[in-house]
Records
---
Amino acid sequence: MPTNNRAVSWRLISWMKIRGRRFPALKRGNTKSCHRLNRGFSLIELMVVLTIVGILVRIGISTYSSAITSSNISSESNALWGDLQYAHSQSIKQGLTVTLCAANTSGNAPYTCSGSSTTWSSGWVTYTGSYTTTSGAVTQALLLRVQQPLLSSYTMKSTSTNALSSISFNSFGFSTIRGSVTVSPPSTSSVSSKTVCISAVGSLQIVLGGDSACP
């Protein structure tokens, strides 16, 4: 029996030595590996990660804001261009003079053309014939289309040499004067303006930039 016990003891000691070599972290006093696995992130590493995330978020927000502004600029300039195209085609179809004029359309009809004002941000109306009545407003019988005001932070203004408060097309589809109307973003935006150009022969075009970009 003593011989057998001694043999078992040596086998147990040999097994523990083998286990100790394979798994040094299990040895008594060898806690360095455990601490290395459980230490986590340092404060500096966390600050670096947060800084990178902040930069990426700022770039994403700026890009998204510019895309929205550019979309609004395109939408407003396309609205004016579309109504001018409509007025041009109706003047030829009906054999009458068709006019767009800047007007405050935030309220209810009848609407009054703004006269000498070259700002189109408050809206505009499309009508046939002459708008002059006893009240100075466009009558419902002459009114073809009404465009609502722009978003408050955007501006639409004619800055061409011939500043336009109204645009008319005669029965042949010719415009009475050459000019342009520019849609501009908020002053804090870096997005470019867009301009609707009107030639004397009635051709219409949207260009990037101000009146100087018109052909």
---
Amino acid sequence: MQRPDAELFAGRAMDGLRRIVHALHLGTSTSERAVGLSSAQLFVLRQLHAVSEQSLGDLARRTRTTQSSVSEVVARLVRRGLVARERSSRDRRRAVLTLTAAGSALVAIAPETVQDRLVAGFGRLDPDTQRMLAEAIEAWLAASGLADVRAKFFFEPNDQPLPESTAIGSRGQSP
């Protein structure tokens, strides 16, 4: 049986996580209604708008994710004509991503994403709190048997199901 304070902390942590997930869901719905893009796609467009001519690696760093995750989102944006892949004007050996005119026009009218707000809020925390929060979330994932689940953009299509060892229900009920 858990101690009462452990139950309280677990409840606070789960409620915080629920609020984040709920905000992300609402943000994606708002973004899809406003501009026809997921909030992850809009977040990527905003990062390209902020800094022109980024490589895929640069964009992965700016979006705080992996190259493989951001490349899936970029591919959708390229197919929609919102992002172009071209040679860098500074180094012709380097491929870069830029917004098209349609991508720039869309960013100008699009709502702010929850991801933008979360990243900005994280940046306002002091460095010790940033480190502690990152380490605490990683420890929580490890203790929950979820450390090996691949991090992807929130609510992007074609997510793969969890492996059997981490699937909800394989260790009991999900809260």
---
Amino acid sequence: MAETQTAERTEASAHLKFARMAPRKLRRVADAIRGKSVREALTLLKFAGVFAAEPIERLLRSAVANAENNHHMATDDLFITRVIVDSGPGGGFTKRLDPRAQGRAAFKRKRMSHVTIAVGTTPPKRQPKRRPGASITAPSARARRAAAPAAAAPAKKPARKKTKAAAAAGKK
């Protein structure tokens, strides 16, 4: 009888298929968490004010659960090793009609995405490249402190200009 070799898995993954969101929006969030520890990425996703952060947060929690339950990895020291965002089927979108003037119609392209997240116990060998574009990082403590007093102070109404009639009535 041949003995089976059981190699220990170093990576656990989770897939999100047919997400009704554009890949461009999801890639913005994926680039922000790529290569980070799971704990740091979950914190970043939770407080990011970006609509695309919620499905990626759920997918990351699923990948961590897969690592713990299926591959017996410790969840405390997991890192995000891979994040892949691909466009969905058929050119990546479904078409919807948008009525236009004079009986015309225009197509709206409702894009779909496939997302794969892999987590592992070893950090990635090389740091991911910084990509240009908008970031989803939470504001720093200094920025929050600077914004707090400005928000707490009540706003004054600007003084109204008197009209000529009101100015003439005030002189009498």
---
Amino acid sequence: MEDIGNTLYSIIGEIGKEKIQSDITLNMELSKQYIQVILAQFNNRVDIANDESIGTLCEALLHFMLTAGTLPSVRKVTIDKINLDIIIPNLHTLSNFPEKAIVIQIPKDAKSITKHEQKNLRKIQPNIKNLWIVTKEPFLGDYINYSIESVNNRKTSSVVRNFGDIIIDIDTFLEQTKDKTFRFFH
């Protein structure tokens, strides 16, 4: 998995980390183009087919884009013995105002999101529209599913979005919820 991170950050370095940060800070819409370019360049260099590698790539890229866009987030938190990958904007908001928080899960095995795990996640984030799952392919569930691949007319979650839209959607969500979390500018 170290190779995935090295390749990802090599691509980011070639494009220009500061350029990406500057562009996204000025225009969040550009995040979609950068995500698409980075994923395309990554696919040209590395053939990854398994869910674990895709999950690792998406998680690392999402962490970078959140930082580049100065979007507030908490990463790798455990609540009630449930591991959460990303919380937007923070744990306090999720605990006290779950309607103003997003939980993003990036399973390393898409089949690992069992009905039991979905039920546990809903205890932490009762607002299903604020539970987002990132997967390689769209698949069945009651949450918002951000997918790397297209839908291809399969029956999947009630809402399937392109992974490239995730930063724009997070930014829109934070604007709609009037989030005032302090943002660090790099």
